[in-house]
Amino acid sequence: MLHLRLIVPADRTAEVTGLLERTVGTAHLVVLEGAARDPHGDVVLCDVAREAADEVLEELRGLGIDRDGSVAADEIGLSLSARADRAEKDAPGEAADAVLWEQLSDATHEESTLSVTYVAFLTIATMLAACGVVLDNAVLIVGAMAVGPEFGPLAGICTALVRRTPRLAWRSVIALITGFAAAMLATVGFSILMDAMDLFSDEQLRGERPNTRFIYDPDAFSLIVSVLAGAAGMLSLTSAKSGALVGVAISVTTVPAAANAAVAFSYREYAQAWGSTEQLLLNLAGIVLAGTATLLVQKVLWRWGRRRAERTERAERTG
């Protein structure tokens, strides 16, 4: 369940509490009159089943509570309450299938921000992958995949396309392009330095490399894997099963492909550089297409489930 903490203007408290009381899936409603000081108003607390939360948040925005007051939602780790259990049982659908569109937009907006930390993580991941491709070490490649933060902007692009928010899309594209450009440029310098220290060599890059050859030799599976990873990654975000995101991170070769392209460019191995770039573009395109399609399907299913619940509720009232 989610715990809602609302700051509500006093003249709208009755309307808000009425909304919460008639929403199936709510429990533990508390009203603290005049408790809020900035902004001034009443504090309203409530627990709501995840399945019903998106509708509640949408209606609260419709009442202008986000503009004139405050709306905050937190995941409840543990709730020992028979009333809460009944609320979750009464709410239509399954909690794992519920999509909180407001939460998704907020999360992807934060994760798609171009920041020093984001660029640092992507650069470190690309340098780590550079070591992996030169040494043909699969363990280093997996580590680089897990460290890379590029799924945030990719998820931001998918969300922006579905919710039609050009600002988020532009923000995500800038973070993605700028981040990879900075990381690859730094990795070129890193490769030159490693070569000067006799730790990297052209012979290593041009060797057989059975464990990492797939990075610069894309095929049909490159697109298939990226599509599957994109769908799984978006499901992990929308269903709050973030643990699955680690598995997604090590399923795609965006960071290793960027690293191989940078190292190959530093040695003027342009065939490998182009193959790695093709692998990178295929993975980015596959993730965006699959992530967007996943969100669209979830949106259609969410609307269908909502209309079905409304029809059932009307039938119960008339029956």
From TrEMBL:
Q: Which InterPro entries match?
A: DUF389
Q: Is Cell cycle tagged as a keyword?
A: no
TM region positions: 116-135, 174-194, 214-237, 244-268, 280-302
Q: Which UniProt keywords apply?
A: Membrane, Transmembrane, Transmembrane helix
Taxonomy, superkingdom: Bacteria
**Protein name as it appears in the record:** DUF389 domain-containing protein
